[in-house]
Every structure is written in structure tokens, then in C-alpha cells.
């Protein structure tokens, strides 16, 4: 798979879904079609795989490598690929980074290790990223969780990470508050070296982008990449009227995708793609389970309101 060596994380980056058969094995043909569907949208800078949206926690090392192989084969010639690094230990994270680099990824999205929920300090975060950076020369994106989860990096920690890890180029910003998010945008994008904030505030995307984010990285881009790309362009052009009109279409879907419990967000997106006729089934791997019929009906109504599905003739999920 050709790598895009000059790629810097920015712009509109959908995080795609991973289809499964009923026996929970990967449906490679449907995944290829999904990749083609998403990347047919104008204005994307990359796509993300091996992340929350592809249920990476349930995928083995070999499955993650295969997901990267398929993505590279299907879209790698034209589209940079951001590969997630999901590992509770830094040694395994470095092994995944080596695999992704050899497989042709153009950037890595680094998830926070689960042990950080029990407490962390700056030295731990820097060491985790240093191990990964030593294993690859790819640009790194730190996934910034809400501070309340214990896995979010405090301000002083982020600044130290950026100072000590030169290949750390961006954060995927899931800050727990508007105030924290705005601090990221105002501070991190005005440092002495270039650094980008990629919004993943997908439940309030327009408001987030107006703060000045240099891009977005969103699982709901698996369904509405075109609307997100148009919204990003409108905000960049200071076209408030167009941005509001696009946000009016995005809002009903954001409301159903990001309802509680949040863990079902990508489950719901699969159901949306089935309703739209873009996936054959909405199978998820345990511990996730199929959502109830009433919730699927709410998703159908949101798709209609977003003008992505006619009021009649919707495919049953």
C-alpha cells in the first residue's frame, strides 16, 4: 500500500465502520464497499480505521493488520489512512505502530491506555508516546478523552507531550467541556510549532468548528461524511447561513447517534447504513448487542429528517 509521506493530520477525517457476518467474522466485501462509499465524498483528507468505530477492542492483532491491508488495497492509492493504536501497554502499542507503519498507514491515532483510569501523571503519558514514537516516524494524533474519565491528559501533560514528542502533530479532541475544548484550540494551535486540533465533538460539531479547529475526526462520518465536509467548508468560509442549514440536517442524527448509552453510537451508525441500503446487516461484536426496534425506528426518522432517506420505502434493519 502506498504511504502518503507528506500527510499531516488536518481537515475532514471520517472514522469508518467494520461490517461483520452473523458468525462475527469480518465481512470483507462489505467493508470494501463501505470504504469506497465513504471516500467517494469530496473534501476528505484521510480516513481512520482500527478505532472505536471499527470495534478495535474486539479485534485481534491479526484482524487489525488485515483491516489495514484491505483499506490500503481498496483506497490507499488516493486516500491517506489513519490507523488507531489501541493498547493498554506501551510495548504492545509500539508493536502495533510498527505493524501500521509497515502496512502503509500515513498517521497513527493513539488511544489512552486503560490503566490511566486508575490515575496517571505526565511522565507516564510521555513514556507511552515516546515508546510509540521510537517505533515509527509517522505523525501521531493523541486521542484526548474527557478529563473526568481519568484517561484525558491535563493541560500541563499535553504541553509536555508536545514539547518532548516531535512527531505528535494533533489531538482528536473529545474534551469533556466547552471550556477545555476552547483551551485546546486557543493554546495548542498557537504554539511555537504547528499543531492541529481535530474536533470529535460530533454531538455539537458546528459549535466546535466555529472555535477554529483545523479539522475533525468523527465516527459519524461513516454515515454523513458529505454533510461534515460541507459543514467544515462553510465554517472555514465564514458562511454562517450555509453552516446553519447543514447543521439543521446533522442535528437529528447527532441526537440519536450520541444518545445514552454512548457505547452504542457506532452500533446505531451501522443500523443507519442498513436503513440506507449501504450495509447488509448491523452485526456488532459482544459485549455490544443489537439495539431495540424502537431505537432503530428513531434512527429511521432522523434519517428522514436529515433528508438522507425518503419517508417511505426505507429498508428494514
Structure description:
With 317 residues, the chain is of the alpha/beta class. The chain is built from 11 helices and 8 strands. Strands 1-8-7-6-5-4-3-2 form an 8-stranded parallel beta sheet. Helix 1 crosses helix 2 and helix 9 (240-257) runs antiparallel to helix 11.
Q: What keyword list fits this structure?
A:
317 residues; alpha/beta; TIM Barrel; 8-stranded parallel beta sheet; 11 helices; 44% helix; 11% strand
Topology diagram in text:
Blueprint: E1 11-14, H1 28-39, E2 47-49, H2 61-75, E3 81-85, H3 90-102, E4 107-110, H4 122-135, E5 140-144, H5 155-164, E6 168-173, H6 178-188, E7 196-199, H7 205-209, E8 215-218, H8 221-236, H9 240-257, H10 265-275, H11 293-305
Parallel strand pairs: 1-8, 2-3, 3-4, 4-5, 5-6, 6-7, 7-8
Class, according to the CATH hierarchy? Alpha Beta
Helix content: 40-55%
Nearest-integer average pLDDT: 96
Give me the oligomer status. single chain
Continuous helix count: 11
